Amino acid sequence: MRKTGVALALVVLMCASCTSTPTTGPKGIASTSTSTTSTTHPPSALDDLTAFFIAAADIDQKLRAAAVDANGAVGTTQITINQSTLDAIAAADPTPAAKDIPAGLPPDVMLPVLTVQSDLVSRYWAFRGFLQAQPGTIPRANPLPGTLSAADYLLLCLGSGSKAASSFSADVAAARAAASQTPPVVPVDPSSQAAADLAIWLHYIVGSNSGCMECGGSRFTALLPITWHPVAPLTLGGNGWDGDIAGGLFTAHYTPGQGWTVQFNAC
């Protein structure tokens, strides 16, 4: 693991082979925006991303509040976990914000937008040690030197969201700037490959921060290539695969009214 120190940050993990169901669908073309000086601006992809940026700003504030609570829980000899802290962390789950990202964005807009989402996910999963805990106290003294205790793991994870937290404002500005220079999004069918690709990228962001015992710290700074090609089952009686993302196999299945369910071959 690459975590060091107890930084003021945020986030945590779960097996990347588990499924998630990020739903992507067409977004309507937004109306022309008007500034406070009544100057009319031409429509752009920024209009289509208004809901996402509002949601991202809200989650950012909740993550900051959760970080204050989490760091305040760390004492000299023990970590005190209160239900209020767990509730604050739960409220900062960035999953809902992902649903406001429209499929079909051009690569030069999709990447910075996904970087912003990955900042939020990275910070959230840095709280993994809290997410796995119950209200109570955890002694900081390790009863089994040489092993990673619950307290050790919680503290190591807690620092992993610091880079994402410090980069968030600049990443939002970059995403907004790119979107403002791009025409409005042309709505795509929610069952389309463009919608599936978005679901796969979103699942990758979650998996890289929460799968295989990771706990935050991963930022999505490159639009990883997705190749659709059938792959035979890897084990007798297993299921086939639909393609790979940067070499890692995935399946992606669409359910009308629910969206895409993605699974990776990981862990």
Characterization of this structure:
The protein has one domain. Helices cover 41% and strands 12% of the residues. The protein is built from 9 helices and 6 strands. A 4-stranded antiparallel beta sheet has the order 3-4-5-6, covered by helices on one side. Strands 1-2 form a two-stranded antiparallel sheet. Strand 4 and strand 5 form a beta hairpin. The relative contact order is 0.22.
Please outline what is shown here.
The chain is of the alpha+beta class and 267 residues long. Helices cover 41% and strands 12% of the residues. The strands form two sheets. A four-stranded antiparallel β-sheet has the order 3-4-5-6, with helices on one face.
Number of strands: 6
* Largest sheet geometry: 4 strands, antiparallel
Binned strand content: 5-15%
| Overall pLDDT metric | 87
Terminal CA distance: 15 Å
Radius of gyration: 20 Å
Question: What is the total domain count?
Answer: 1
Spatial order of the strands forming the largest sheet: 3-4-5-6
Strand-pairing-aware structural class: alpha+beta
Shape: globular
Percent range of helical residues: 40-55%
Low-confidence stretches: 1-38
Order of helices and strands: HHEHHHHEHHHEEEE
By DSSP (H or I, 4+ residues per run), the number of helices equals 9
